[in-house]
Amino acid sequence: MSNVCGHSLKSTIVIIFHFPTKYPQPKGQKKKKIVKYGMGGLIIFFLICIIWFPLLFISLVRSVVGVVNHPIDVTVTVKLGGYEPLFTMSVQQQYIKPFSEDEYDQLAKEFEDNAVAMQFIILYSYEDIVTAMIEGSSGSVWRISPPSRQEVIKELLGPVDLTLRLSWNFQRDLGKGGTVEHAFDKHSIDLEPGNPVRADLASLLVGNRTEPVLVPSMFPKYIRAPNGAEAKPVGQLHEGNEAGYMDITLSLNSSGNQEWWDIAIANCYSSECGVLPMVIFSDKYHGAVCVRGLRAALCGPHSQALH
After folding, report:
1. For residues 137 and 276, what is the distance between their CA atoms, to the nearest angstrom?
2. Quick one: a GO cellular component term (predicted)?
3. What are the sequence ranges of the domains in the chain?
4. What are the start-end ranges of the H helices in 23-127?
């Protein structure tokens, strides 16, 4: 082994000493610019390619395939007219469950006889869908003053039109793509004078009723969440459009001086009534991922990331 190392070292020394003789180059002679800048430029170019090409390649792949940015927070609110919300509930990621292949197959089987619904479903894979499991018990107490409470009862029993509104808000993580953090929409029911829901709610507030109040066609189960700010119900998956929304019940609970509202799915199994499932179809995002990826690939990491 020592002989090999010694021979290698001797050969290297011989080459170093004989190089100027074989390839004479006058000392101090200025090299041509084309040689100097050409060789240096090529070396820099190859270094850039080696370092940044993987980033560029990954960003291009992501821009073509697309990225699904599911909601990280889902908030549902129910309001009666302009008064304090009756119900507010937010769920985070642990209650926003990804769809499985079996659930996707069950969904397709449920609508297999509906060609319009199937045309919508096949636009998405199971990875594009999540189910937000919204707890039916309000996350906040109903803070309404006695005068406002009496005003609500008066309006419910009077000739004035009232609106019962259910709204939803989806929050996304912009770090995963997209330009709009919140997507939202609402569904409203006009409670005209004579509507039985008005009288039932008034009886509930007065204290003459303890049974939940049935509100028909109130809760849309299927929502499409595109990359914009609107998250509208999927009309193709609700038979009769708004008429196909789920019926719910409203009940008022109290403990001491505190009151809160509960929402439940009407006519369901007891173990499932207290949870409102909202199935969310998220569109893949392409545009900004490509731009951000190209910028990162061409410009390199942010200077603060190097510290």
Report:
1. 10
2. membrane
3. 2-65+289-301, 67-285
4. 33-65, 101-110, 115-121
